[in-house]
Amino acid sequence: MTDLILDLFRLNNRMINAGDKLVEGLGLTSARWHVLGTVITAGRPQPVAWLARDMGANRQNVQRIVNDLEKEGLLAFEPNPHHRRAQLVVLTDRGKQAYETAMHLQAPWVDMLSEGLQVEDIKTTHAVMKALRSKLEGHGDVEEQA
């Protein structure tokens, strides 16, 4: 399991670097792309804290990225009727266009990455990753083990 975890760390770093290169011409990074995707997949405006939770990321880091994307006109803030201070994050038309362009670049890249891999192996790997994530989100945090 330790070897798997170390390889996941290495893979994560390589995926981030490759993603950065893929979308750099759009003025995005992997982190910015991830935030835009999280806003889109949420299906409705959400506060930064909820986006961070969905991403499994630190709220302060997501807030910084959201603020940067807002300054560049890719995201906007709307009042939150349920909480005065926690504004809702919404995608602008420009942000939607940037995300869609990134996804068009991503499609052939994913095809290349999946070449030679078996669908069943991909499904099994995905299931294992989801199970590990579930354990970490529920009861597998390091603080709880100490």
From TrEMBL:
Residues forming the HTH marR-type domain are 1-134
Which keywords accompany this UniProt record?
A: DNA-binding
Task: Name any one GO molecular function.
Answer: DNA binding
Database matches in PROSITE patterns: HTH_MARR_2 (PS50995)
Q: Which domain of life is it from?
A: Bacteria
From the Swiss-Prot or TrEMBL record, give the protein name.
DNA-binding MarR family transcriptional regulator
Task: Please tell me the species this chain comes from.
Answer: Rhizobium laguerreae
